[in-house]
Structures are given as structure tokens and as C-alpha cells.
Amino acid sequence: MEKTIDESVQGNSLSLEHKKDNDRKLYIESYGCQMNFSDSEIVASILANEGFNTTNTLEEADLVLVNTCSIREKAEATVRKRLEKFNAIKETRPHMKVGVLGCMAERLKSKLLEEEKIVDMVVGPDAYKDLPNLIQEIDEGRNAVNVILSKEETYGDIAPVRLNTNGVTAFVSITRGCDNMCTFCVVPFTRGRERSREPQSILQEVSELWEKGYREVTLLGQNVDSYLWYGGGMKKDFEKASEMQRATAVNFAKLLEMTAQAQPKMRIRFSTSNPQDMTLDVIHVMARHRNICNYIHLPVQSGSNRILKAMNRLHTREEYFALIDNIRKLIPDCGISQDMITGFPTETEADHQDTLSLMEYVKYDYGFMFAYSERPGTMAARKLEDDVPLETKKRRLSEVIALQRKHCQLRTEQYVGQVQEILIEGTSKKSEEHWMGRNSQNTVAVFPKEGYQVGEFVMVKMNSCTSATLIGEAVGYSENQV
Ligand code: SAH
Ligand code: F3S
Questions:
Q1: What's the first-to-final CA gap in the chain, in angstroms?
Q2: Which residues lie with the beta carbon below 6 Å from any ligand 1 atom?
């Protein structure tokens, strides 16, 4: 928790001063989770009020912001490489300023200014409303840092400027921070304690998106199932709330249902779900509303009870299976995806086999898989030796990826021969003549464009597939088409 305005470092005389008022160009680049991409839209909105227009051309930027990720060492290395590139550009554009936002800003604080000379400004994920002041500081030639983590901030009152949008799908943040303290994870340190956003502001944002032609929203949080609105404040203080506040509190199942009912034709997704926080109520709500997509991203990280415990994942393998069984019972065609970590400290070959057998049980539609990367300050880094050799981590990772690929193929193939509702998101990357969209389960489908348009709900007969993409042809509009 610190706020420093470093006044000792004087910038050069070519400050942004001369370009003030309405014609400055902001280039913003985002790394890491969907939340970062969503936050960048909030940042763009705050800076639009300060006269900044966004540009996609780095070379014409007056202000370059990079919204960073700290989740693995490699994510940070990527950002540092980008800073080198910005440095090269600054040689020909000396007035250009560079700010680091997000998790690396929060983790490294003013150390970043010392380590990366190109950086003028360091701003943590809860401090974006302070950007106008911080920019004034750098305009005046001083470096600026604000990395205060907030108990309240949810940016609920800011209408994001949609960046790089397809005009069809959008993210809507509903919670910030995470209280789960998985021992490998840096997020609780960089994003602070869990807070939930006021439900009406969420419904309002979704309704505005619908009006603008958006047809799908993803409710976003590090741990969405933990959503709890009781009048504001941190989740951990719920116990201290008044009886009235507790009686009228809105949990995630309720919020999901309210959103689905408020916009009955809007497709609704959510991410990410933590097994220990996902309730049966949520699954029931999903089953009740056709516009809530049948897809759950349900990271498990490991199939071994011993490793789950060491990771402080607060469920067992058996409890996870029970949750999967309930999902399959209530929503038989639900798509399920995972995150997995190989080579967590002390992981044995037997633990790894447990991960593979868990995957065999679930047969996930999709997965995001990583070799363990020790993060400074986390409980795992402090208490456990990073003792699985890199080669072993990588070998186990490739086995997990190979198995996932097999299951992905299997799951994709099951749709061949079926007619599925696809929401068109844009032109296929591989062919100008084809649309690309997704089914409810989040599987990508491509099909000839014919007379259909972006943002339309179309019924598509699936004729064949690759391991993760369905190939089909449209047979008409969905009844959901407006
Ligand atoms: N709840 C978050 C998770 C953020 S991290 C969400 O919204 O998705 C995303 C994934 O990165 C985690 O699920 C985990 O599989 C992986 N991860 C996190 N910390 C890691 C580490 N130290 N090493 C390797 N992978 C990690
Ligand atoms: Fe990280 Fe675990 Fe939260 S993975 S974001 S601490 S649920």
C-alpha cells in the first residue's frame, strides 16, 4: 500500500504540455487475463475525458500504456521485451511517455522506474481513476506512481470505451480481486481483496451493450461465483453487515438470473469459476435460462488430492467429480474447460498420473495448461522449494496437452451431424468467404457467409471438424434472431 510521486526525477523539457487539450493520442496494449483487457477499456474511457483518442499505431502515440500480467515469469519477460521496443521508438519521439499498468505495476511498484528507465508512470489496477493527476505529474516532467489497492473500487460508474471490438461480444466486470489465496498465485497480491460491483450498474451496462448491437456478454471476475453484493465493501466483511443488508444481498446465482431475465435474447457467459465457490444454484439458473450459455470454465490445477491441498485449493478430487456429475446431470450438453499446472513443488509421477486420470474422467472440451512458475511473495515461493526439474515439468505439460488435444477432438466431433445455433462474430481468419462464430458451448464454428451478417444468430449444420473448429453450412436463422 503506497503512493509515491517521485519528484526527484526530472523529465526532459519536451513534455506533453504543448500537446494538451484534445489532440493527444493514446496507444494501449494489454497482456494476460480477460480482466486486463476489460480494465484497459476503463482506462481508455477515463482518458477519453482527458482528451486522449486511442490509436492502434504505436508510432503516432503521445502516451503509451501497457497493461501487464505477472501470473508467470514469462508474462513479465514479454512485457520487458515490449518496453525495449518502446524505447527504440522514443528515440525518434522524445515527448512520448510510457506508463505501466496492471499486475506488474502492483507487484514491482516504484522499483519498475529504476529497473526500466523508459517508464514514466506506474499505476496499479485499483488506481486508474487517479490517471488524470498522474498524467499531470508526468506532463510536468516528474515520474508518477500510484499502486494503492482499494477496498471499494469496482469502476462500476465508468462506461468502458470498447477497444478492438467485434461489436458483438463484450466483457463486463462484476468482481475485482481474489480472496482465495491459492499458494502458487500472485493475483491476490496484485489485485487485492474481493469486491463486487453494484448489480444495477451491471444490468445497465448490459442493457446499453444490447442497444448498441452487442449480442453476447461475459460476466468477468477472478472468481465470479464468489460475487456478493450487500451494499458495497469487501466480501470478507459480509459477516459484519447489518441484518437488512444480509437479507437483501445478491449472490452470483441471483445476479446471473437477473441478467438473463433483463436481456432474454442476449447470450450470457461468465468466467472464471472456482470449484469450491460454484453452487448448485448457479447450475440450476443456467439450466433454466436458454440465453445463459452452456459452458463453464472450471480450473482445477491438479488431479492429486495432496497437491490440491498444497495449492490451497479448497476442494478434493472427489468433490470436483461430484460437481462435474451435477453439471452433467442438470446440463447434459455443457462444455467444460480447465486450467492445469504441471510440476507444482513436490509433485510426483503418481500425482501427475492423478491429473491425467482426472482429465480422462471429465474429458474437457478445452484447456489452458502451464508449467509451474514460482512467483515471488506467494506462499508456495516462501514455503516450498521449486523442486520439480524444468524438464520434468515440461514433459508432464506435454503429456497433459496431448491428452487435452485428444479430448478436444472428441468433444468437437460430437457436434458433427448436428445443427447448432451460432452467433456470428466476424470473418474467419482462414477464409474471407466464411463467417466465424461460436456455439453455446464456446466451440468455434466456420461456415460460408451467404447472406448472413455479423451479430446474427444462425442455425448451422456441422459437416466436419478439425480438432477445435467445426465446419458447417447455415440452414436458416435461429428463433433467437432479432
Ligand atoms: N481466477 C483466475 C485465475 C487467474 S490465473 C481467472 O480468472 O482465470 C490463470 C491460470 O494461470 C490459473 O488458473 C493457473 O492455472 C495459472 N497459474 C496461476 N499462477 C501460476 C503459476 N505460478 N505458475 C503457473 N501457472 C499459474
Ligand atoms: Fe489465483 Fe486462485 Fe484466485 S488461481 S486468482 S488465487 S482463485
A1: 49
A2: 33, 71-72, 184-185, 187, 222-223, 272, 299, 301, 339, 341, 370, 372-373, 375
